[in-house]
Design goal:
single chain; 495 residues; 17 helices; 65% helix; disordered C terminus; amino acid transmembrane transporter activity
Length: 495
């Protein structure tokens, strides 16, 4: 018997509250891709592929993310739902794909909570080197849980201020950088000389750029959270498009300009660019530039900013994963008790289960902070690209079904430009990223099977979820004429 869990249903009792205002949605979109990928990984990217290679890789991924966000914007404004990607995949592709995408997304962000908490303990030890990892993990977990248990406004408000800190830091950095380039700060004008150092602007050839391409993809993960947040937006038909439209400009300003400024001031041959990681915060490329400008407290300030970025990612992970788990239970794809809401519209059981997974961060105190952080990050890394792949497929099928059922495209509250090029382009690039995730494991004299396992484990797990559900429930690809366009009001979201 074919699964019908993608069809509409009515609910009684408490409902999700639409408490996210326009400013919350804007900052969730704006802050989604500003984090350790910009503050730390950008230095390694420049060192690996040169300034030109880093800019090329980040620009290509930025264009892909822009198309993905416009695809998601079209879906989320037409059908705002906290289930987001799994709801769209179930309705417009196959219920089995929706099931697999939902659990993949939940796992990704639930593990990200643990990874970010482990990272926070590393960062806090910059000031308190002999303190307990267990204590800090518990403290940060309680903080994130408290922000999510109050109300959806608690999450929105905290993300708003987290994003303000990150945005302000980048704007100050760009301003200082420009003054340094023209010699107003830091002594002599550097001009464009560092773009021609060594074999710059491109260094390391095609595979170096490909490697940065992978890292850039990780940096932008989080932008898709706006699809989940749309389900609790006060006015998704206006707020989501407004936030989506800023994606392209924030990528241009925050990544492209930041990498350009770093490359102009710090040559790609600088040895400390390769050390910009959590345990070497003193040589974050942002820190290097600030110190060169004569700002002696740069390392402490950047450590504090990166700490807020890490907590922001954990906060978003808690919110998004609990909402998607709730939606899975609501649709019959997870245990029913996870679909219960309290009087404030918070999916408490889903939140508690997700928090329990976040407690994996406590392992940091047992096995060493950096090791656990790296292991957790590798365990969830591929999942984000699988989510993006699903968004591209869902939007392509949505638009085709919309037209096949005789609907007028002019009635869409937001229409993605460049269809079908946008989702097809994003699909192809996501496939390249997924397949090339750890190409180095196959280039030596012998295949590095442990490297293959770490990099690609998420793929067979996703396929098991997808094909296993398909086999048990006997689901089929939904014909275009039968795709369900029922509004999401019937899915437990309070207007």
């Amino acid at each position: 018997m074919q699964d019908r869990s993608n069809q509409s249903h009515t609910t009684t009792g408490p409902t999700l509250k639409k408490g996210l205002r326009a400013r919350h949605m804007t900052m969730i979109a704006l802050g989604g891709s500003i984090g350790t990928g910009l503050f730390l990984a950008s230095g390694t990217a420049i060192s690996t592929a040169g300034p030109g290679g880093a800019l090329l890789a980040y620009a290509a991924v930025g264009i892909m993310v822009y198309f993905l966000m416009t695809s998601l914007g079209e879906l989320a404004t037409f059908m705002p739902d906290s289930g987001s990607f799994n709801t769209y995949a179930a309705r417009f592709v196959d219920p089995a794909l929706g099931f697999a995408m939902g659990w993949n997304f939940w796992y990704n962000w639930a593990v990200t909570i643990a990874a970010e908490l482990a990272a926070a303990t590393v960062l806090i030890k910059y000031w308190f080197p002999d303190s307990s990892s267990m204590l800090w993990s518990l403290l940060f977990l309680v903080l994130i849980f408290a922000l999510n248990i109050l109300s959806v406004k608690g999450y929105g408000e905290s993300e708003y201020w987290f994003a303000i800190i990150k945005v302000a830091t980048v704007i100050i950095f760009l301003s200082v950088g420009v003054l340094m380039i023209f010699g107003i700060l830091g002594g002599e004008a550097v001009g464009f000389s560092n773009f021609t150092v060594g074999d710059a602007p491109f260094h390391g050839g095609f595979f170096a750029v490909l490697g940065v391409f992978m890292a850039a993809g990780f940096s932008f993960q989080g932008t898709e959270l706006i699809g989940v947040a749309a389900g609790e937006s006060e006015n998704p038909r206006e707020n989501v498009p407004r936030a989506i439209r800023q994606v392209f400009w924030r990528i241009l300003i925050f990544y492209i300009l930041a990498i350009t400024v770093i490359s102009l001031i710090i040559p790609y041959t600088h040895p400390n660019l390769l050390k910009g990681d959590l345990e070497n915060i003193g040589v974050s490329p942002f820190t290097l530039v600030f110190e060169k400008a004569g700002l002696a407290i740069a390392a402490s300030v950047m450590n504090a900013v990166i700490l807020t970025s890490v907590l922001s990612a954990g906060n978003s992970g808690m919110y998004a994963s609990s909402r998607v788990l709730y939606a899975l239970a609501r649709d019959g794809k997870a245990p029913r008790f996870l679909g219960k809401l309290n009087k404030r519209g918070i999916p408490m059981n889903a939140l508690l289960v997700t928090t329990a997974v976040g407690m994996l961060a406590f392992l940091a105190s047992l096995f060493g902070d950096g090791i656990v952080y790296t292991w957790l990050l590798n365990a969830s890394g591929m999942c984000g690209f699988i989510t993006w792949l699903g968004i591209a497929i869902s939007h392509y099928r949505f638009r085709r079904a919309y037209v096949a059922q005789g609907r007028d495209l002019r009635d869409l509250p937001y229409r993605a430009r460049w269809f079908p090029f946008g989702p097809i382009f994003a699909f192809v690039l996501c496939i390249i990223v997924i397949l090339g995730q750890n190409y180095q494991a196959f280039t030596g004299d012998q295949i590095d099977w442990s490297g293959v396992l770490v990099a690609y484990l998420s793929v067979p797990l996703f396929l098991i979820l997808w094909l296993g559900y398909k086999w048990i429930k006997k689901t089929k690809v939904v014909p275009l004429q039968e795709c369900d366009f029922t509004p999401a009001e019937s899915s437990g979201i309070k207007e």
